[in-house]
Structure prediction request, 279 residues.
Amino acid sequence: MAESPQVVERKDDSVLVTEAKAGSYAAFEELVNRYENKIYRLGLNLTGNPEDAEDMLQEAFLKAFLHLPDFREDARFYTWLVRIAINEGLMKLRKQRADKSVPIEETVSEDGEALPREFSDWRPDPEEQYKQAEIEKILQQAAQSLPPGFRTVFLLRDVEELSTRETAELLGLTEGAVKARLFRARLQLREELSKVFKRG
Amino acid sequence: MKCNSCLQQISSYLDGEIDAELKRTLEEHLRGCHHCEVIFDSTKKTIELYCDGELFQLPTATRDRLHAALRRHWQEKAG
Prediction:
């Protein structure tokens, strides 16, 4: 008799949250498995170094574990987790800045000039032209060239896919300020990466 | 549409937040202006690179430390 293929059911996050709240470590661990990589990536791009990224990762999941009973599920689990993680990451950044006596919120104007200077086409498929570690380094360095307040908006909106409103609420900004920072951040990152990826 | 106006709208265009008429004008400009087309394409590619799931993989040792710490806290809580 032919065996039917085994189908592993992928549970919704909300189901796993309910099970974890009821005491299932396996359910909580599955949530960790789903998002640990994304939170680590967020940490690397936000803080710029693996040690702070690991601290942010651990603190974020530890706090998620401790505060899970208080999670009211009016947002997606991942959005809630990103909120916790970004707050941890911002604390790391403040500490980094305090060590260097530089305030986290530089007085960078949101409506200042952001005119592109690089107009060359990019070589196709940078992912295939460079080793993975090289690309990661290039992206991290470009992210670090942004003021932290702009970098955070870019990461939340474009990488973590939070809405403009969610990002504004989380960072205590107006939606207009989020859009202005996102615009500036995208153009500046593009400018930085163009220096590396342009043809010729 | 002039290049500067196009540039100001590129971010909103990427987010699908411009109206149909402006979208049509902007796309027409992009077809005829190589500089703006390059800026649009490379901005889009910039975002795609940061979202590439193959990059920034969690190192195994970091993952192991995370899971060990969480398991320890879970067990302590469970008594």
In short: Residues 10 and 40 of chain B are 7 Å apart (CA to CA). The two ends of chain B are 68 Å apart (CA to CA).
